[in-house]
Amino acid sequence: MSNLEKQIEQEREQARAACDVNGATSGECAAAWDVVEELQAEASHQRQSKPKNSLEKYCDDNPDAAECRIYDE
């Protein structure tokens, strides 16, 4: 389980606790679930990111290589 997934689970538990203590219609309950929703959106965004190809990985490791130079026109 990734760090983000662990954090989502922790926030989900805290949201349930906040709703139990403060009531399902409280501001604290709504705010806690908003945090969970934001973390889930970030996790979804990270899953949609395309993986780097071999040239991109090479350029990350060797930014000064001729193949990795970017010229301004």
Tell me about this structure.
The protein is mainly α and 73 residues long. It has one domain (3-68). 68% of the residues lie in helices and 0% in strands. The protein has helices at 3-22, 27-48, 54-61. The protein is rod-shaped. The N and C termini lie far apart (45 Å). The model has no long low-confidence stretch (mean pLDDT 90).
Low-pLDDT stretches: none
Helix content: 55-70%
Taking the alpha carbons of the first and last residues, their distance comes to: 45 Å
Fraction of residues in β-strands:
under 5%
**Overall tally of structural domains:** 1
Q: What can be said about the biggest beta sheet?
A: none
The chain-level mean pLDDT equals: 90
Structural class: mainly alpha
- Rounded to an integer in angstroms, the radius of gyration calculated over CA atoms is 21 Å
Number of strands: 0
Listing every helix as H and every strand as E from the N terminus to the C terminus, the arrangement reads HHH
Globular, elongated, flat, extended or rod-shaped: what is the shape? rod-shaped
User: What is the number of helical segments per DSSP (H or I, 4+ residues)?
Assistant: 3
